[in-house]
Amino acid sequence: MKPAVLTGKHFLTGDEACAEGALAAGCRFFAGYPITPATEIAECMAKRLPEVGGLFIQMEDEIAAMAAVLGASCAGTKSMTATSGPGFSLMMENLGLGIVMETPCVVVNVQRAGPSTGLPTLGAQGDMMQARWGSHGHYEIIALSPASPQELFFQTIAAFNLSEVYRLPVLIMADEVVGHLSERVVIPDASKIKLQSRPRAKGRKDRFKPFHPGPNGVAPMAHAGEGYMVHFTGLTHDEKGYPVMTAQAHSEMVSRITGKIRGNLDRIIHVEEYRLEDADIALISYGVSSRSSFAAVDEAREQGIRAGLLRLVTVWPFPEEVIRELAKRVKCLITVELNLGQIHLEVQRCAGGMAPALLVGHAGGTVITPAEIVEKIAAACSQ
Amino acid sequence: MNRNSPTRHPLDSILRTDRIPHIWCPGCGIGTAFSSSLIAIQSTGTDLTKTAVVSGIGCSGRGAGYVKLDSYHTTHGRAIPFATGMKLANPELTVVVFSGDGDLFAIGGNHFIHAARRNMDLTVICVNNLNYGMTGGQAAATTPNLAKTTTTPLGNPEQPFNLPLLAYASGATYVARWTMLHTRDLTQSIQEALGRRGFSFIEVLAPCPTGYGRRNRQKPADSLKLYQEKAIVKNGANPAEVILDFKQGITLGKFVEYDRPTFLENYDRICRPGTP
Amino acid sequence: MKFWRAPLDTEEIVVSKGVVYIIEDRCKGCGYCIEYCPRDVLEPSERFNAKGYHPPAVKQPDLCVNCHYCEAICPDFAIYSLEAPEQRSSELPSINF
User: Fold this and answer.
1) Is position B79 within any domain?
2) Chain A nearest-CA residue for B117
């Protein structure tokens, strides 16, 4: 057996860092399907999981991969899958199942340019709205966005922790650039990595209600084989888990699964501010685009423009309050993303007309350069 | 005879009696197949706390909601991969998939053949009522040629699957077919399947009076009569030669039973040798 | 059944006997138990249960041999049989020779 936490300094691709992060987080089951540019995560897991006593299986398609991940989690094992756009689309139905069954797990989307087969080997950030609303029905989701292999390592651990505490699938919306570039990744000692686990069922087994929320809105979980004889269904269900086909029961269930997220926003949302304290122009970005945005802020400042960057670490739930406050004090908000305006729509919505909301974006296939961003900043200033 | 029975039904301890009577129609064969399965599960002596039932969508899929075991009513066609993840995460569990022909072989067909190929240690009980009952009686991959369904109002132009052959060809190591009339044989097959390792597949023919029977001149009693009269029990028959024809005959029996390493045995041996 | 002489173990063989219990409110009136009871113990009743179905009624309780087939064939968990309490041999049903 080899250690799950490879403490030390490494030179890893984002995909490799993601796999190592999963292992460090306690993931011991990976079901996946090859897809560029996420295949390397599966390949890493295939090699490393047996070394730590875990299990890897390549399923017949992404639908099966997501189903297997849910099944493994219901049996008590931290589990994960990784894919890209086309596979992400396939996983949507079972993602919904994971949401209503309140199953902790992690789904990584190393985004590539879409729609459809698109540019398999080139990055984009075009799945951000899909991450929010890709499955049918109304629900809340948590989605993180890493900007470097180092961050991918830590965000994978964070994703597992969030999924365990709040009992839902958590998404990591990486992109091909971050997934495939190699950078320094420092893996700390295992003792420095804080892990969370799902709240466990306690008490009389014959009286246990699998969906009765605890104090933070999350119900303790009973696994298969623990003797609680629980019933889990994708149908709208009550606190016992039994299907109830009424609008009332539906409202209660949806309120419970959305409420546990909306009621804990301050503990879930995480943003990073760079030179934003006195900024006139605020860039809003995430993932690979935020790397160019950092450089653009510095360049703009050198030109005398007070620019700053709000980097979204958690993209969903969207940091509405932060944007609203920002819109009150800056002259202009500029969203920088590798699509034609998805998070931009959220920024626009939250800005509510208090500040103009602009976009620097294109459909993907290459990164946005700092120069393009600075050009937009300058243009915004001159108005 | 007592009108209000003083004792409980022998299966009440394994049923969610707070949800009985169930939703299945009068004359529906699923209840009987389900009952035979419960008798088998109860009688094998396996630890019931470590037995999980996984189902998909459809009338048969509702079975998971009525059994008092850890049960998972998942998405349409995806019971088998869900069960795969569950079994691999905790190999001590006995995982049973109880679902219908539409769920397992149309939308779920790909998952079925791969699980069989891998010889996943699962027991798959497929209630075959020749149509999609829950949604009102549409044609399924098992609907007989020329049969009337709501999506084949002028007769089914397609040929149905030979499920035992499909299972055998995919690599299932235990393949049997019974009808819900043959309760004891069915229970025995399920007992055998539960007691062995590997991918076991049992097809159970059942009437669907509301969906299929109504449109094909088969009152529930007629279906059972056909099962009785046309059944040809041929244990060990070649799956390629088994027939399902209400005029010519319905081959029943335990057709295939052999041993080969399961997915987990192979994985442990090849991918993680030396791991306890 | 016709025998040409009395079987040698007539005195020793005990034919099993059962008592049928019907959980009427679970019954959906499919009629399978009535149709397939090998001893013709059951018949449709005139009564309605809570859902409006006619549950079966036992017409010949003494003929029940506790084969459990009604219990096995019933799709609704509405009928089952239990072994009848011990009887003395003189009360066994007679067999015609």
Assistant:
1) yes
2) A60
- Do A276 and A188 belong to one domain? no
Of C21, C32, C73, the CB nearest to B2: C21
Q: Give contacts of A94 with chain B, Cβ < 8 Å.
A: 75, 78
CA distance to B26, B147, B216, per residue, from B246 (Å)? 22, 11, 11
Q: How far apart are CA A204 and CA A187, in angstroms?
A: 42
Q: Please report, as a single letter, which amino acid is at residue A217.
A: G
- Residue B5's pLDDT band, with cuts at 50, 70 and 90, is low
Q: How many CB atoms lie within 10 A of CB B154?
A: 7
Local confidence band at C44 (pLDDT 50, 70, 90 cut-offs): very high
Domain-ending residue, one of A171, A192, A213: A192
Prediction ipTM score: 0.96
Is residue A205 in some structural domain?
no
Residue A16 lies in a domain: yes
**Nearest chain B alpha carbon to C49:** B3
Q: Does B60 touch chain C (CB under 8 A)?
A: no
B16 vs A: CB within 8 A = yes
Entry pTM: 0.95
Can you name the CATH fold of C24-87? Alpha-Beta Plaits (3.30.70)
Distance from CA of B95 to the nearest CA of A (A): 10
Residue-range definition of the domain harbouring residue A28:
8-192
Say which CATH number the domain at A347 has: 3.40.50.920
The CATH number of the domain holding residue B129 is: 3.40.50.970
Taking contacts as CB-CB distances below 8 angstroms, the residues of chain B near A233 are 64-65, 72-73
- A77 with B89: Cβ contact below 8 A: yes
Query: Rounded to 5 degrees, what angle do the CA atoms B54, B58, B64 make?
Result: 30
Buried b (16+ CB within 10 A) or exposed e, A18-46: bbbbbbbbbbbbbbbbebbbbbbbbbbbb
**Residue with tokens 């605890």, as numbered in its chain:** A214
Q: What is the DSSP string of B166-220?
A: HHHHHT-SEEEEEETT-HHHHHHHHHHHHHSSS-EEEEEE---TTTTGGGTT--H
CB A187 within 8 A of CB A5: yes
Q: What digits encode the pLDDT tens for the residues B164-176?
A: 999 999 999 999 9
- CA of B222: which chain C residue's CA is closest? C32
Paired sense of beta strands A271-274 and A307-312, if any: antiparallel
